[in-house]
Design brief:
Length: 155
């Protein structure tokens, strides 16, 4: 993980205002990194960061993916599998069933599989971005799954 990170930002509908508020609160830090966001969340975050730019010195670097239910979760999962995401901030709604729940579970599974630091609420997001490890060159240990793959192929 290099100094400039690629941070994924995702939020379920009821949590979008919370994520946007969090992004606004942390705008100075977020403007130093590349952001990848799903659908509407990304548009809201980009609008918030662009109106709050640091005296016009920095432009928000926000890549928009498709909406989560329309494939954005899977696009993000592919980026995680390719090693292109350094941290995942996902404000998910624990009180409402999601029609694309299987995609959400797959995304969180990949983040776990590839040892990507993952926050699921404001507190854990604050802990990740305020960690001394966040500013430096940190390389997460990714488990080697070669023996698993070879075992499955032998079946």
């Amino acid at each position: 993980m290099k100094g400039k990170k690629t941070i994924a930002l995702v939020a379920h509908d009821n949590m979008k205002p919370d994520l946007v508020e969090w992004a606004d609160w942390n705008k100075e830090l977020l403007l130093k990194h590349s952001l990848v966001c799903t659908g509407t969340t990304g548009k809201m975050v980009a609008a918030t960061l662009e109106e709050k730019q640091l005296g016009g010195k920095e432009t928000a670097d926000v890549r928009l993916l498709k909406s989560g239910p329309l494939g954005g979760d899977q696009q993000l999962g592919a980026m995680i599998a390719e090693g292109k995401i350094d941290a995942l901030i996902f404000f998910w709604d624990p009180m409402e069933a999601q029609p694309h729940d299987v995609d959400v579970k797959a995304l969180l599974r990949l983040a776990t599989l590839y040892n990507v630091p993952t926050a699921v609420n404001r507190s854990s997001a604050d802990f990740i971005i305020s960690s001394p490890l966040f500013d430096g060159d940190y390389k997460p240990v990714v488990k080697e799954y070669r023996s698993y793959v070879e075992r499955v192929l032998k079946k």
